[in-house]
Batch of 2 targets.
Target 1
Amino acid sequence: MGVYLHVPFCARACPYCDFDFEVVRRPDDSGYVSALAREFEERAEPLGRVRVDTIYVGGGTPSTLRGATFSKMFAELRARAGAYEPREVTVEANPEHVTREWLLALRAAGATRVSLGVQSFSRQGLVTLGRAHHATKAREAMETIHALGLDASVDLIVGWPGQTPAALAADIETIRDAGVAHVSVYALTVEPGTPWEGLVARGARAPVDEDAQADLLERCERSLESAGFRHYEIASYAKPAKQAQHNRKYWRWRDFLGFGPSAASAVATQGGGLERRVNARGFAEWARSTGDQRAILDRLDPETAGREGLWLGLRLLEPLDTSELEARFERPSGWARRRLARQFELGNVLSPSAERVVVAPGRWLWHDVIAHDVLKGT
């Protein structure tokens, strides 16, 4: 089973972000670890039944924590897990926080992978996106991660106002030259309630041009594939054997447990359903809550869980075994193909064999349309 740990601290707020975080000068490392240990203890029963084989530390900005804090976090988890055998441990970081000393502490704690929030190497892009680092620091961070034997995954944001094909090409060239093995490419979206929404409303930022954004996303795919990356999930590209193993659990309906404010868990229930648990948002509220007060529980019936499983499964750009999906969610044979009938007609989804379906080449840009069709209740 995979375990997700949410770190809710950031040094500054990015205008496009709607994740659960609070801006602090000095994160309360010890208070966070103590609250995390209490949640581990409260949920010792599910933890004690599982073998933890992947860990993902996200946020917020985990790199605001001291390097030594990760050893304490993982030790608390190890003490309560049925078995602790992580083969992939990812920690998110911002380039401006990455130092050799911090990475050495991370490696000593058992981390194998750093997910670096670069977003852009362009000065214009970094200013537009409200990022704190400079391109030089991002390059240095990638080099140091690589030199210490850790895998680096780099996040890029595509479609910010003023981004040109030349700027995107320069970003990808920088990533290629740094020897990065995994890239996540996210289309900029204006989420409700974020500062960016207000900036657009006031005319201080241009609205997202979706056609221009789609062109850039296609350019990005061509460039990364020509550089030896495989486009294996809508937003993910990897060199051989470097796919994100933790994230694959989400897309192939494996159980996972989440700890920390706003963290989600999903565990299969008897009969093909799903129980989802989502913790309270906000560090203070999560830290002072106990037991069921800490989370919202949502039980999905097999039909609803199956639709969600189909939607998630089609995020991977590789054939989906519909018989495996139907067995997992206890759906009748042929259920998945019937749910996708309209998408077959539109040419968005293909069937390379009787029991496999896959998003058609180039149609990954249509995934929101496919998802709407799959998830609707009729």
Target 2
Amino acid sequence: MHKSSNYRWFIVAVCFAFMLLHQSDKLLIGPLTSQIMETFQINRVEMGAVFSGALLVGAILYPIWGYLYDRYARSKLLALASFIWGSTTWLSAIAPNYSMFLASRASTGIDDSSYPGLYSLISDYFGPAIRGKVYGILQLSQPLGYMLGLILATVLSSAIGWQGVFYLTGSLGLVLAVVIFFGVKDAPRGRSEPEMAELEQIGIYKFDLKIALQLFKKRSLIMLFIQGFVGVFPWNVITYWFFSYLETERNYDSGAVLGTMAPAILVLASGYFVGGAFGDYFFKRTPRGRVLVSMFGVLMGAILLTLTLNVPIANQTQFLIMLMATALFIPFSSANVISTVYDITLPEVRSTALAVQYFIENGGAAIAPLLAGIIAEATSLHTAILVICVSAWLICAVFLGLTTWLVPHDIRTLRQQMRERAELERKGLAA
């Protein structure tokens, strides 16, 4: 089986490449915001609608992608997502006016909801003891993709225009679709669970509506869903408005923006792996470990962002140092939330469970860029970023605290279910 060889690290490498290039394509609109607004002669509210459109489409499609990933071959669906990414990015590049750009950019949200299947596939190549670190490695791609998008936007856009940058990243999506289709193989659902380790073969498990509905009876999962509603607000506000904030309210030129954001993003990238590694470490000692690390991360993010945005505009060095400190902690919860979802759900509904999590997150967060634009028009981007981010993280901390109390019971339930399933496999009675 592929799982027993270095092939599983090839899977990680391909998934990393997909996430890196996809995130670059998705997030480079942030540093290109000013150019796009100038091209179409639009204001912040109209640009906020562009951001929110893709997020809304992605949110709506999460449950559909989740079901498909739990029902059919995840690798082929991931290749389809890559093809859609490339195609819709090309459509955005050729849009002749604001209305067409708004519609085409919204269509890029179709593939943005494809990640649950990717994480589910990885969960069947790597056991729960190291998933946090593996997910942390994969999620390095998000800030690195952000930085790649920043470099493409600042270096290439002046030469080939923002449309040319979209042509480039869209083409990479099409190429990667071919690589995934022919190079990535699926794995049996549940193959890497400890209870299945000694079994040479296991049954085929696919989406089951009855099991999927049981997800909504898991109290710790409900708490994660609720905190997720506001949990991505900060990410989307920072992603789509922070470059504009540096340019317009802190008076940074393009060189200063790159010199500030590049080191901050590198630190942010390390925070994904550090958070995942800490989550694995403490999870081995207590079933509450991953969630405790998550709660610590969001609280530190709220405190440090407040201090960072209140650094005097003239003191760029102090601002950079504080921004880097903030960047280290704010991704702590990311890999740990995914791992926790998989710690309490059966393998055949994991894509669905994470899709519901992301649906709720993006359903709430889709309004964040537009809300930030409205607040910024009335006050400032400084106020918009600070109010939205700090409020969201404090709310998240409350519900993560409740999750910490509830999660041990749901973990024990899953482990018992897997033991019973393994026993049925040994007796040859499994589906």
